[in-house]
Amino acid sequence: MKPEERHSTGVIWFNIIKVIESIEEKGLYVRVNRVISFFLDDKIRYIGASSLKKVGKVLDAGTGPGLTFRLIEAEFKVGFDASLKMLKKLRAKNVDVVCGVFEYMPFRRNSFDGLIAAYSFRDSFDKAKALAEFLRVASRRIVLVDIGKPCNPLFRIVIGLYIKYLVPVIAALLTGDFRNEWWSLYETYEENWTNCALAKALDNFGNVIQIEKMFGGLQVTILDKR
Ligand SMILES: C[S@@+](CC[C@H](N)C(=O)[O-])C[C@H]1O[C@@H](n2cnc3c(N)ncnc32)[C@H](O)[C@@H]1O
Predict the structure, then answer these.
(1) How many CA atoms lie within 13 A of 36 on its CB side?
(2) Is the CB of 82 under 6 A from ligand 1?
(3) Is 33's C-beta closer than 6 angstroms to any atom of ligand 1?
(4) Which residues pair with 79 in a beta bridge?
(5) Tens-place pLDDT, residues 167-184
(6) pTM for this one?
(7) Which of 65, 79, 198, 199 is surrounded by the fewest CB atoms within 10 Å?
(8) 107 CA from centroid of ligand 1 (Å)
(9) What is the CATH number of domain 3-225?
C-alpha cells in the first residue's frame, strides 16, 4: 500500500494505537518515556493538569493508562480514548470512561468546562477535525500537552533527528529490544503541526499561552476560549 493510501484508510493511525497498546502491555510506557523526555514528561503533564484546577468538569482526551487523569483535580472528570484495552485498565480504578475517537466525539456541545489532551492530539488521524471537536465539547479551557515540533527550523531538525535515531536506540538500551516500538514515534512527529501552527489555529478562538521545554521539543498549549 502506498503511504497516501495507508493514510486515507486509517492504517497508519490504527498501527499507532496498536503500538501504544503494546508499549503499555509490556509495562514500558512510563520508564522509556521518562528517559527520552529527560524526565520532563510528567512535569509538563502537571503544568497542563494544574491549569484545569477549579475549571469544573474536565475531559481527559486520549487518557491512555491514566497518567494525566490521576493529576486532574476536578469536580467531575471523564477519561476518553479510542482504545478499549486502555480504558479497561482505567475502569478497574472505578472511574468514568467513554470510548470513541477525537474526530467524532459522542458528547453534546459544551458538555465539559475543560479538556486536556496529553501526548494524544499528535496521534489523531485528522487534527483539524479533532481540534474542532475539542472546541465544540469544551466551553472554557483546552490544554494540549505533547511532544512539540519547534517553529525554529534548526531546532525542528535537531529534535526530529533525536526522535528518529536516538530515541529508538535509547529505548533499545532500556528494553533490550532493538526492534522496539519507538521506531514509530518519528512518524507522529513528522505528521504533527509545528508549535506555532498549533498556537495560530487556536488563536482565533481565544487567548493562547504556549510553554515550551527542550527547545520546543515538548510543549503545553493552553487556550482560554472567548
Ligand atoms: C500516548 S497515549 C497518552 C496517554 C496519556 N494521556 C498520557 O498522558 O500519557 C495516547 C492515547 O491517545 C489515544 N488516541 C490516539 N488517537 C486517538 C483518537 N483519534 N481518538 C481517541 N483516542 C486517541 C490512544 O489510544 C492512547 O491511549
Answers:
(1) 28
(2) yes
(3) no
(4) 60, 97
(5) 999 999 999 999 999 999
(6) 0.95
(7) 199
(8) 18
(9) 3.40.50.150
